[in-house]
Amino acid sequence: MQLSHQASRFKSKAFPIIVIADGIQSPANIGGLFRICEAFGVARIIFWNSAPDFSSTRLKRTARDTINKVPYSICEDVISEIEILKNKKYKIFALEITADSIAIEDIQREKDQNTVLIIGNERHGISQPLLNTSDQEIHIRMYGNNSSMNVIQATAIALHSLTKV
């Protein structure tokens, strides 16, 4: 039988991970992003290049109550924000398949390293100016013929990899 939220034996743990969502538009994906980030102990979500409608029934239903548990902001100047984070020793990873990307399991990263994970728009991926700010472009190794997956599914896989302890 499935355990209730109260009966689960998971220990809460926060990670020094910030997710930057570049142009995520779908209310279901935004809600799913909150839910996944809460599940993986993400410190903060930064939305850029989008205006989430937090009154959306679909967003609220997908997020459940995690909107109230994961700090978030809507950023006008994300490039400056990333420079501030780099000065605070954050490592910037862009989750995108590119000619220079490496498989996420092959990245070099210290345990509990301050980390930014940039994720991209459902259709167009990460915008080039934002991609240019990353320290490393990373991808999820896939074995089928399709070269993409849903942004929230990909985020979940990436966060699972980044939070392995």
Automatic annotation (TrEMBL):
GO terms for biological process: methylation; RNA processing. The keyword Transferase applies. Residues 17-160 form the tRNA/rRNA methyltransferase SpoU type domain. The keyword NADP does not apply. Transmembrane segments: none annotated. GO terms for cellular component: cytosol. Keywords: Methyltransferase, Transferase. SUPFAM superfamilies: alpha/beta knot (SSF75217). Gene3D superfamilies: 3.40.1280.10. It comes from the Bacteria. One of its GO terms (molecular function) is RNA binding. This is SpoU rRNA methylase family protein.
